[in-house]
Specification:
30% helix, 7-stranded mixed β-sheet, DJ-1/PfpI, lyase, two-stranded parallel ribbon, Rossmann fold, Dimethyl sulfoxide reductase, alpha/beta, 8 helices
């Protein structure tokens, strides 16, 4: 049977200051979608609230708008999917083999405390499925607890967008929290590449995380390998 993957995207359209737009970092979705599609996996877009998932404007500009993202923008059917995502609360975890959290700064606001996303991650993980994230997507793992009360990320090797990368990107002052620090405080064994903005993927059993947009394809390929093992 084909593997089934929940692709999680954000509903948030701006930073705390409404004059600063944000949203889904498009290539972090499209690279994963391409990898999973080529593997014959079935994919479902889901968000905390359902409905539209806004796009991060910076992800639509050179050099971030790569060939994969351009193909998505040119595909009316796929663009329509981003306007009508499923609502996390209405999803049955038993229907899926993996959950994959995409990024963009938007997710820092709506991923961490969403109980439906936590339920889906816990149930999929405890059934032997894969939990994956790329870049800021790891914010969706911050508060997830397993059935025994232990945090999903406790004592697990993970990565995600680093605080140094926030500083170098010029947005650290707009962040609601330091995600790297929050991960460490929850007992995660956070790892990052020696250099910022280079591909870095960490696989710890069923948990697969990628550091930044440059890691998008490699992270998805790591998820594919774990699912196919």
């Amino acid at each position: 049977m084909s593997k089934r993957i929940l692709m999680v995207v954000s509903n948030v359209a701006h930073y705390q200051d409404p004059s600063h737009p944000t949203g889904l970092w498009l290539s972090e979705l499209t690279h994963a979608w391409d990898v999973f599609e080529q593997a014959g996996f079935n994919q479902q877009l889901v968000s905390p609230l359902g409905g539209p998932s806004p796009l991060e404007p910076r992800s639509l500009k050179w050099p971030n708008l790569d060939a994969s993202a351009k193909r998505w923008l040119a595909d009316d059917r796929r663009m329509a999917m981003l306007k009508s995502t499923a609502k996390a609360q209405e999803i049955d975890a038993s229907d899926y083999d993996a959950i994959y959290f995409t990024g963009g700064h938007a997710v820092m606001w709506d991923f961490p405390d969403d109980l439906a996303l936590q339920r889906l991650s816990r149930d999929i993980y405890e059934r032997g499925g894969v939990v994956g994230s790329v870049c800021h997507g790891y914010c969706g793992l911050l508060n997830t607890r397993l059935s025994d009360g232990k945090r999903l990320v406790a004592d697990r090797r993970v990565t995600g967008f680093s605080w140094l990368e926030e500083i170098l990107a010029g947005v650290s002052g707009k962040m609601p929290y330091n995600a790297e620090q929050q991960m460490r405080e929850r007992g995660a064994l956070y790892q990052k590449a020696w250099l910022p903005f280079v591909s870095n993927v960490v696989t710890d059993g069923q948990l697969v995380t990628g550091q930044n947009p440059q890691s998008a394809k490699a992270t998805a390929e790591a998820v594919r390998r774990v699912l196919s093992a």
